[in-house]
Structures are given as C-alpha cells and as structure tokens.
Prior knowledge:
The complex is a heterodimer.
Chain A: E1 2-13, E2 16-27, E3 31-35, H1 42-50, E4 57-62, E5 65-69, E6 74-75, E7 83-86, H2 98-108, H3 113-126, H4 142-155, E8 160-164, H5 172-189, E9 193-197, H6 200-206, E10 209-214, E11 217-222, H7 224-229, H8 234-239, E12 244-254, E13 259-262, E14 267-269, H9 274-278, E15 283-287, E16 292-295, E17 304-314, E18 318-325, E19 328-335, E20 345-350, E21 356-359
Parallel strand pairs in A: 3-9, 3-10, 7-8, 8-9
Antiparallel strand pairs in A: 1-2, 1-4, 4-5, 5-6, 10-11, 12-13, 12-15, 13-14, 15-21, 16-20, 17-18, 17-20, 18-19
Helix pairs in contact in A: 2-3, 2-4, 3-4
Chain B: H1 7-15, H2 24-51, H3 67-74, H4 76-109, H5 115-128, H6 130-140, H7 147-154, H8 165-190, H9 193-201, H10 206-234, H11 238-243, H12 252-261, H13 267-292, H14 316-343, H15 359-367, H16 369-401, H17 408-414, H18 423-434, H19 445-455, H20 457-468, H21 473-481, H22 486-514, H23 518-523, H24 531-541, H25 544-567
Amino acid sequence: MTYLVVENLVKRFGSFVAVDRVSITMAKGEVCTLLGPSGCGKTTTLRSIAGLETFDSGRVSLDGVTLADPSAGTFVPPEKRNLGMVFQSYALWPHKTVGENVSLGLKIAGLPAKEITDRVAEVLTLVGMGGTEKRSPSSLSGGQQQRVAVARALALQPKCLLFDEPLSNLDLLLRERMRFEIRELLVKLGITAVYVTHDQTEAMVISDHIVVMNQGKVEQEGAPTDIYTRPSNRFTAEFLGRTNLLPLDRARSEPATSKVAIAGGPILKSAEAARVSDSNEPLMIAFRPEMARLVRTDETGDNVMDGKVTSTSFLGSHTQVGLSLSGHEVNLLTPGHRKLANGESVRFAIDPANVLVIVDNVSGSEEP
Amino acid sequence: MPATATPTARLSHDASKGPRISGVPAILFPVLTLVLGFMVLAPLGFLVYGALTDVPLGDKANGITLENFRRVLTHARYLQAIWHSIQVATLSTIIACLIGVLMAWLVIRTDVPFPRLLRIGVMVPFFVAPFIGALAWSLLCQKGVGPLNLLMTALGLPEINLYTLGGIVWVMGLFYAPYVFIFTSSALYNMDPMLEESGYMSGLNRRQVMLYITVPLVTPAILSGMLLTFVATAGQFGVPAVLGAPRNFHVMTTYIFDLTQQYPTQFNSAAALSFVLLFITVIGIVLQNRVMKGRSYTTIAGKGFRPRIIELKGLRWVAFAFAFLFVILASVLPLLMIGYVSLVPLYTAKFSFSLMTLANYKNVFFDNPMGAQAISNTLILSIGAATVSMILGVVLNWIIHRSRVSYRGFVDLIVMVPISVPHVVLAIGMLWTYIYLPLPIYGTLWILLIGYVTGFLPYAVRNVGATFVQIDKSLEEAATMVGASWARTVREVTIPLLKPGMVGAWMLLFIIFVRELTTSIFLYSPNSEVLSVLIYNRWAEGDYTALSAMAMIQVLVVGLVIFLAGYLFKVDITRSQS
C-alpha cells in the first residue's frame, strides 16, 4: 500500500535544475533514505515534502491526500501537513527549555495542559531524555540536543518523520551510536520516515529502502543489501563503498556463455554478462575489494587471476592489497594481517556472482 | 528543459507555484511593500515634478519647463552654493578621515592607555549631533566673549573667527570623525589575525606587514566610510546653518532652506537645487558601492583571537595625548561650554560660578509653553518613530531574508535608497508630496514621523538585519513544522531571538530622532516644533542661555538612553551602528 508518494518532482533555481523528475514511493511504516553527495537534490526533495520549499512541477501526496501539486495549484502549508522534522542543526529554540521546545506544537494544537505534560514526558522518555524538561538546550551535549529534537518532532505523532542529515554535526563515535538508536526507535514506533544523508553507512543501518541520488536524479533505489551488492551503475557502486572498476572489452565478451572480458586482460565469468548484449550504454566490469579471495598460486577454476603486488596497507581488521592486473590497478581486502612484498605475484579469485557489469554513468571522469 | 531562465521568467514561475504565503503575510507583505514604495519613491517623484514645473506648491502644473534647472545651473549665487557644498564636504571628509582612521588604529591596534575611555570619547560627537557641536563651538569662539578667544587675546594672538569655511570644516570634521572611526575600527577589529601572522611567518617585519597586508585589507572600509561621510557632510544642514548662513556663506542645504523661507517662496528652485544635491550624493554612493564590490575582505575572526597589538613604547603617552586632545575638542569642551551657559542667567565674558542657577531649565519646562510642548513633541515623535522603524525593520527583514515573495528584491533595494538621499532633499520632496495627498498629514506631527521613518529606514533595516541574519533559518522552520502559523512563529521564535537587535536598533533610532534637526526644520509647523527646531530658532534670536538649556536637555535624554541601554539591556550602542 502506498503512503508517501513523490511524483516527477522538478525544482529549478534559475537555469539550474536542482531536482530532476524524482519519484519516490513509500509504504506505511517504511524508512527511506535519500543518499547522495552534497548538492544532489536530496535536501531539496525532503524540504519539498515538508512544504518548506516549493517546486516547479510534480506532485507530493501523503496517505492519499495531495500536499502539493503546482499544476493543480494545490499547496498545503507546512504547518498544516502534520509532519515531524529533525534538522541538521537540531534547531532547538535556545530561549525555551527542553520542555517548552517539545510542547510548543502541542500547545498550538490546543491540547489540554495535563495531556501536554504527559505527552512531553512520554516522548522525552522514549528518546532517553526523561526528566530534562526544565533544562536549557544549551546545557545539553550535541547528542542530547539531537534526541530532544527527535522528541520534539515525535510529540505531535506526525504521519511521517523527516530527517535532514541529523547526525552530521555529531562526532564520529556518537554518530555511529546514534544511527542504531534512531533505527531502533523508528522500528519500535513503526513510523514512516524519510531520512537524508550523505553517509552510506548511516543509510545502510537506518533504512529499509535507499534512494541514491546524484545531480538531481535518482541513480538507483532498493533495499540496502541490493544497492550494495548489485549496484547497477558506477556512481552507486563508487558512492557505496570501494569498488574496483575495469574497462570492458565488448568484442571479446560472450554474453551467451556468461563471459565478460577485461580490456587487455583475462576473461571472467559473470552473473550479469547478459547486460553486455542488452545495453548500448557504456559498461564497465566491477567488483568489491572484499569479494576477491587470495588463493594458493596453484589453484585453478573460474575467475582465477594473477596480479603483481604494488602496495600493502594494514588497516587493522583487514589488509588492503594493491595489485596490478594486466596493467589495471585493483585493490583487494583480505582479513587479518598479510605480509606481501611489492612485485610479488599473487593469485586471486572472484565468485561469478560478484563480478558486476555496471553502467559507466560518471561523466567526464578519468579511469580509476 | 529550456535553459533560458531570465529573471522575469523566474518571477512568473514563482507566482505560479501556488500560495506559498498565506494568512497574515499574504496581506501584510504586499500592503507594506506598497506603502514603503510610496514613502520612499513618491517624494523623489514629486521632487522631479516640482523641479520641472513653475507652479507653487500644491497647484496643478500646465506643462513642464527646464527653467528652474537653467537658473540653478547658471546663476552665480546657486553655483556658489554648489561650489561651497563640494568644498565643505571634501575638506571636512579629509579631516574626519585623518582623525577617524588614526583614532581607530590607536584604539584597536596599539597599546595606547585607556582604549575603552578613548573609544567612548570618540563616539560622543556621534550622539551629540553636529548641530549642537556647531552651537557650542560658536559659543566657545564668540567674538570678544568666547573663552577660547579670551584665551587667544590673553596670549596676544588674534581671535578665532569660526564663521568661515574653515570653521564649518573644522566642526564638521570633528563631528563626522566617528563615522570613519566606526568603519575603520570594525575592519581592524574583525580582521583575521592569521592574515597578519602569515605575513610575519613569511618573513615580513612589522612595518612591511602593516604596509603590505593591514593597510590594503582595511582600505575598502576606509574608502567606504569616507564616501559615506562625503555624502553625509554634503547633505549637512545644521553646521553651515549656524556658522555659514549668518555671514551669507551658503551651501546647498542652507540655500535650499532659504528658498523655502523667503517671500515669495521658491519651491520650484528649491526642488531643482535639491535635485542637483541628490545627484552629487548619488555619485558618492555609486562610487562607494563600486569600491566595496567584491572587496569586503574583512573576514570575521572566530575563536576570540584578535590581531596583534602594536607596542608604541615611548610614543604611548604622545599618542594618548593626541587622542585625548581630540576627545577634549570634540566632546568635553563643547559640552562644558553648553553646560556652563545653560546654568548662568546671562552669558557674558565674565566667568562666574557663583551666579549659577537652574532658572533656564525651569523656564524651558514650566514658564515657556513652547518649551514643554517641544519636549513632549520630541519624546512622542522619537518614541513613535523609533517603534515604527523597529517594527518595519523586523517585518522588512523577514520579507528580504525569509520570504519567497517575488518582490523581495525590490524591498531590499528600496529600503536602502534613503541612504543616498540627503534629508534636505527628502524633506523638500515630502513637502511636494504630502500637500497633494488628501490626508490630514501636512502640518501635523504625522509628517515629521513619516519623514523620520523614511529618512532613517536604512539604519533600522540594517541594524535589525545584522541580528536577523545570525538567526538560523531552521529555528523558524522548526516552529512551522510543529504547526505554528507565520504570526505565531514570529512571536515564539523570531522576536525572542531578535530582541537584542531590536532593542539596540530602537535605542539608536530614538537617539537619532531626539537630535534630528534637518527633516524637522523643513517639515515642522506651529505646534509641531521639536526641541532641535526650538534650539535653532533661539539661536537665530541670540537667546544663548535658553538654547543651551534645551541643548543640554537633549544631550541628557540621549545620555540617559545610552546609559539605560548599557546597564539595563546590555546593549553597547557605541558599537552597533555600522
């Protein structure tokens, strides 16, 4: 059942197209993340849903009610949309106490005083800030302020919560902890939420559904695991984690027998080889560094290749090995500590399921 | 997607985007914009009308003529006034700059003793008003009576005659030095110290750092302050009215005033001459914008680091003596003089402290009905106009910084127009405007109120705006998201956070209005006199003791407000008017 729908949203600033025909469909209770680099239009999309931004064409509707549709002249003002929003800067009112921050919306809604007090206490407890009603926001740490901001957004029991990069002002450790807290809270409440971030790990932890955006367009969307393991294009592959990219030699590839050829290099078996015949777009071969296994030098089989070591870096849990594969540079991640000399020849293998064929949609970029 | 997004195309886009604003703003914003547009543009329009016709004020014209401009630009008396204005403005700007820049450097960047005292001392003339300064100095140098001239005679030197170009330039230079000081000191104060430190690290010595880094960085601020001072001094009325007009030394402002006072009045010529004055000041403002364009280097230094203080060593007390001399000449002497004269029954060359009395004050408050009336008019107008200006400042800043209305660019532009319009010009334009308006404004306090608000609109908008831009927009959006209407958002979030800026703006404007002379002298009518007008008229009659008492009352009211601002509201007005 569809709940929040964004249809063909277009937003221009002068001649600059900030959001270019973006469509998102969400079910009730789903957590969806808009993921992309700064300036990709994710925040503009979120603010258009909130009503803080108008747009040029398209439609936003929630639970069957149109919130904004320029062609029909419909625009529900943000204060009437019953949405909760958590801002990047927390946006707690510094001149009000924590309790006053959370209760303002309830007061405006005209709830009885008793109910307001109860509701404020309830949501503050929910975010782990119970009993802080009388405190001033400035006396709280960044993480605590962010929790209060979440409580404020929850107090009115909104139809949908909007998060605008809520963790980007926190330090790394806290940010990593808050991800899980927010995920847990959202799951517990079963609330529909749109979450904007440029942090891929945050997106993977928090969402049921990720929409990867770039330059105002949706590049790919799907469940976090799908997006990560089966990126369909270079932008998505590179934005979510590290990827080895290799040029595809179409002439030597045989889609019929699942074979794809690396330009000037070995021919690999790939589960996605059919794309070579299906698509006219520029394609590349890709695999994640952790999907390749170093194997004994006498091992044979599908997708076994030899490379020369160019660098090794010990990262703690893994060792990153830089290799030259037929003149192409690739990186492998192998668990634990491996000592390899530069120039040493190593053999590695990749499961055909993990050899990806992706669209090279990163315009004007150099070879990796 | 067509890439041809001309501004107009964008505006029509915005308009088609549905009702972005609703509720109160949907009516308030357009109405306010129209009223504002009228207040600022109508006087300029009617000024042109007056200058291009030959009918008396209030009549319908039957054709246009260039005769007024021909007269203004060919007759010797007009040309002489124009020439005098340019001379006065240029020379007093030079003096103000020399003093202002040097004082700013001493106070902000050196270890001169008592910098706080000096900073307050430099700012005093700003609050006393040049007109009062001119009166005080004319008393100090009265022929055969003034204490400075008594001193000169005792020393066997010729008496100082202040009723000259030199006298006008001297007083204006002293009293406009604070303007340059404000610009220069904030540039020096806010400069990122790392810019200079990287100079030292690159091997430059102190002199080279100053020459190659500091000076170029603050030059735009100094030039900007200089051009604004030029515009302000060109439009100055009070000082030349006191020190020039009595000896038939006319500048444009005093000549325009004369044209409106003589019989038969010559409002058409006054309008034409006003237009010439406006032309000169607009050139100044255009130059100022040109200078500042892309050159406001002053990067605000965070973290509380301040640029390095330069040790003056042996010159410390020499520098202090110079700075203190300025404070004495611009603040202490004039205020002492006026204070003394206000306390004696008769002003003569014989100095006597035994006869001191409060009779002059009693006279102003109780015996002279005009005195009490003027004080009450001054307070009503200043409080009213400061309040209206402050409210306008809040709403207009909201339109400019927060709303998406298509005309916000127009509002942003229009609020700054009065900065290039000398108050004499605005007043003449208003006389031409409001006489045609079928509203009972002419000859009441209302026209003064409108004049004050219009003339000082840029101060209100900028002062409130400085605080406004520091408020994170999402604080207001957060209120919207929990269901607050525009009015509720303003009440719950904007106003509480804006309060310091609003209080600061209100007090600054109140002070400016209490000492306002130029707009008032053109627009007042019997029963709507304000204190400044009464002081001016008393001076024309040579009633020095009464005028001194009134001037002191004015100074005390201003002083009281500054004191209240500092101790009650913790607002340092001496720092808040750039």
